[in-house]
Each structure stands twice: as C-alpha cells, then as structure tokens.
C-alpha cells in the first residue's frame, strides 16, 4: 500500500496516525519498519495531545516504549490533561512500562504533576497499584541521592575508592609499626621476617591493579554521537540504525533508551555511571567504577593479591603475639597483657580477619563465575534474560565452554569471549505483525490484545459485548478512580462512532 502511494501522515477523526495505531496494538516491528523505511513520525500528537509513547505506556507495551524512546520520542510531553506517558503507565499499573520510562528519564519525570496536581506515584497509589507506587517512590529517593548537585549525590559519584585507599595504607602502616618493627616484641627470625616483608610487598603491589581497575575504562560502549536536536530535517534516518540485525530480529530488550544505542547482549546500563558497560558484572563502590570486560582482570588480580597479603600479614601478626615470651600463661592475664602491650598488633589482627572474610568470599564468587563464564548481573537477573533459558525454560548458559577453557581464556586474554557454545533455535516469529482487516459493521469493542514482548499482537473481535468498564481520566479530572464505562475510540476520551479498545 505504501508503495502504491498510501500516506502515513493521514489522520482519522481522532487525529490518530499510523504510528498511534501501531503503538496502541503493540506492533513494535511494524513501528520500527515504518519509521526507518518510510520516515513515519514517531512523536506526533493526536487531537488530545497524546503521542504514540503515551499509548504504549498506557497499554503496557514495554518493547514499544523502548523503541520509541530510542527513536527520541519525548518522554516528558504532557497531553491536554497534563499527563505524561509515565502518568498513564502509573494509572494502569504497568510496572514494566514504568520501569523503562524511569530508567530513561530524570527526577523531574517523577515529580511532574498533571492538571489536577497529582504525580505518577500519587496516581498509582490512588488507583491502588501498590507495587507501582512503591517503585516510583523508591526511584525518586534513589534519584535524589544520585543528584550530582547534592552532597549525597557528589559522594555517590566519588565512591568509596578513596576510603579504601586510606584503610589499606592505615593497616599497612599499623602492621609495619606494631608487628614487624614493634619495640616490645622479640626480633623477627629470618624465616618469619621473610614472610612479614612478603606480605608488605604483596599489599603494595596489589595497589597497582587497584588503581588501574578504578581508573581505566571498564568497557564503556560508545554512545550515539548524533545530536537529534541539531540534526538536519533531510537526514532524519541518521539518528537511528536502519538495518541493525538485532532490531530486525526483534530483540528490543537490547535497546538502551538512555544511551540511544543497540547494546551487545551481555552488556547493561549502569545507573551510577550512566553508561552501558560491555560484559557488565556489577558496579563496585569500593573501586568507584563498574566491573566489566576491560577491567575485570585487574579486579581479580587485586583481590587475589590482597587475599594473599592479608593471609600472610595476619599469620605473622598472630605468631608474633602468641610467641611473646613476656606474656603470662593464664588466659585472662594473657588477654590483659596483649590488650595493654600490643594493642596495635591486636587491632590489626581483628581488622585483618574482618576484611579478609569478606574479600575471600568475593574472590571465591568471582572465581566461580569466571570458571562458568557468567557474570554477577546475569546470575542476579537469570529469569530476565532469554539467552540464559534453554528448553523447558531451564537455566542454560550458552557461553560456558567448560571450566578449563573458561579459565584459560580469562587468564590469557583478560576476559571471556561472547561465543555461544550452542545456539538454540529461535521459536519466536520474526517480522512485522499485521492486523487483518475486517469488513462489515464492527462491534463496539476490540478485545483480546496479546501482550507478546515481540510486539506481534493479534486482534480478536467480541461481537457480543456492548459495554466495557475501564478507567476514564476525563476532562474534569476526577481522580476518584472508580470504574466507568468507556465508549471512546481507541483512546482515553469519549463520544465517537469508531470501535474502542477495552481499558480493563
């Protein structure tokens, strides 16, 4: 039809263009096609000031939301009732839609009010969507803490790396002064002295990978350098990737709505660093950066060296305390003697054992994950990632090439390859979902929209239903949120002869 001259900019009586209808039915692949191939407008308003993003948020089509945000649709645009897409997602209780919008947005998106003075969180609470209201409230607190203008925001951006430097150097000085060179302890033997100074050496050397890990690029993925605000009108398709195989395959979850990129499969957007990181493992506040593909080797080396250093220094300190010839034989008297004469060495042993327990646990977890070629993020979100599920929805890691190969690859290259050992055949239908036309008189309601994540929904017509309940956020802004009859055409409003989508 488009090749024969059909126009995508034509509107119906409600001001709906093709992009509106595609968003209303969750047709993500079709929306991507008409925007990239036929230059359809993904951010056009209907008669009520609502964009396709408003509709996708209201209906809960998270993949549509990701695509529209990737296409630079305005997330903060308010319709004639003052509602943003986040307002409508909150009204409907669409948690995944709210999550995508919040991840892509700023604090202002959470505090903007509609014409009645209600924020998205207040609307969700008023509608009794407790989980959504809790999520939005928590998100606002987190964004307040991450605000770079506040003290907490600046502190969170700085991280705990300076504090860790201070702790390591303080313990090292305490160890040298109160254990190795303590004036009230016997002189070190040659063998014990060798171990004592090896511990100092390992601690000092371990600071090198610590510094490298905290300062180097963890694997940041290059963001889209094109500025959509300054893009020429005749070059709109430079803003997006027209033939990206990931998008053509319908893998919408790999869209980063913040960086405006199609990220690799094992990457993730870090909310603290505000960047997508390749092979994202976790954000470590103690090194003030993410742990990813490019700095994980230094991170593991730092952990390993410090574990060895703490084991040696702790053993030397305990040996020095226990072999003090001046200590009394009874436990009570011995404890008082150590607390009075060797308080520095005792404090070092306590701090060393406390830190050692946490670092050993972290090192073992990281070593186990390297042996299986899996990240902390993947283990924490195993049910969210399709590629980690095999036949029967059972856990399956396609990147696990065996402990020997995984470890050798990491030790030699510094990272594990993203090479799948076995690719399971795809069962999802790829392509553009089309709505079949129906002739004759249409019923009052179109129901049964499928919420498949790939956007290829199908429509079923119920010819027996004449009334449907739904939420009506109408012009007089009654936020009582009582259930009302909805007779509007594919929309939030009323009074039209076209069939209506059920808002229930």
Automatic annotation (TrEMBL):
Keyword annotations: Acyltransferase, ANK repeat, Membrane, Repeat, Transferase, Transmembrane, Transmembrane helix
Catalyses which reaction(s): L-cysteinyl-[protein] + hexadecanoyl-CoA = S-hexadecanoyl-L-cysteinyl-[protein] + CoA
The Palmitoyltransferase DHHC domain, residue ranges: 254-381
Broad class of the protein's primary localization: membrane
A GO term from the CC aspect: Golgi membrane
Pfam family, one: DHHC
UniProt cross-references to InterPro entries, sorted A to Z: Ankyrin_rpt (IPR002110), Ankyrin_rpt-contain_sf (IPR036770), Palmitoyltrfase_DHHC (IPR001594)
EC number: 2.3.1.225
Subcellular location: Endomembrane system
Transmembrane segments: 158-176, 188-211, 299-323, 343-365
Domain of life: Eukaryota
Gene Ontology molecular function: any one: protein-cysteine S-palmitoyltransferase activity
ANK repeats: 48-80, 81-105
Membrane topology (UniProt): Multi-pass membrane protein
Top-level EC class as recorded in UniProt: transferase
Record comment regarding domains: The DHHC domain is required for palmitoyltransferase activity.
Family per similarity comment: Belongs to the DHHC palmitoyltransferase family.
Protein name stated in the entry: S-acyltransferase
Source species of the chain: Sesamum indicum
